[in-house]
Amino acid sequence: MRIPLTEPLLDGRELEYVTECIKTNWVSSLGSFVTRFENEFAAFCQCAYGVAVSNGTVALHLALAVLDIGLGDEVIVPSFTFVATANAVRYTGATPVFVDSEPRTWNLDPDAVEAAITPRTRAIIPVHVYGHPADMGRIMDIARRHKLWVVEDAAEAHGAEYRGQRVGSLGHIGCFSFYGNKIITTGEGGMLVTNNAALARRAQFLKDHAMDPERRYWHPEIGFNYRLTNVQAALGVAQLERIDHLIELRRSHARQYQSELADVPGLTLQPEEPWARSVYWMYSILIQDDYGYTRDEVIAGLKRKGVDTRPFFHPSHVMPPYRTGQHLPVAEELSRKGLNLPSGPTLTEEQIHFVCQLLKDKAF
Ligand SMILES: *Cc1c(COP(=O)(O)O)cnc(C)c1O
Known about the structure:
The protein is α/β, with parallel strands linked by helices. It is built from 12 helices and 14 strands. The chain has helices at about 15-25, 30-45, 55-65, 85-90, 110-115, 135-145, 195-205, 230-240, 245-260, 295-305, 330-335, 350-360, and strands spanning about 50-55, 75-80, 95-100, 120-125, 150-155, 160, 165, 175, 190-195, 265-270, 275, 285, 310, 340.
């Protein structure tokens, strides 16, 4: 049996909508699917406005650019995230300030955020790591008291909820990725969502070379080409029609992992806080020191049996571009002990059972 980490499920109207783009010649970034995808995805996120872009990384960069963040500014980010979060801050010239995570959610620790604020701090980027929302109530409270912007990195958490409210709508701007392994995919793609009309307008302006809407080829500022194509948006519209089902598949896979792995000594399972609805982008576990095998031995052992997994992200603060000399114990421990198990929507109950049995029997 070969079990991939994740594969997209494209069995809705994806082919029909993409074919429509090709038959009508609307293959570039103008076309009705782009606007439709923006409106429908924003509504799904309980937001008024959506701005489609080429990927999740540029969504983050554009959000910071829209907020006029740049050289001399500081932006607080969790160290434990995919590296794109910190890179997007660097693209603006600002400095990412790394904070530790909390063991309860594996997301940035609000106390650490508050302690990291300086007169130069302009924004916080909470990341909803592996599909579990960050503690947004406390983060928004800190942001209000210190007059900071909040850009949610929701690239891994489409449809996740904090106290019944969808991620992306909790901060000032929410950023999503539609990369092939994300909750829904457009191949490559991304989106900003917001309830602030002025921010949405500025994002639309900057993403298309900052062209004056009243005067063609007049560019009052330096903009970007961060456009999404109509073909990609067509995929997105079709995926969005099925998003509730795609999320429910991941949640039901998580329930099966939880029940089958609950009593295995030495494994810590992915948390879900009572106030959270996680979308379990990657079903994840920690291999504790008393399990008997190290995390890397487990990865190698599962690989020999045909099971594809991933180690957790390295903390950003230890990688060459960012090496700060900080010691962030929770981020470092997560990174050392964590792995993502097969998680995609195409997984079967038998496959999950097979993986759980290997972890129980330590049959590596
Ligand atoms: C995937 C991801 C991104 C970047 O998205 P791309 O579409 O690959 O550019 C950013 N942040 C996090 C947390 C991600 O997981």
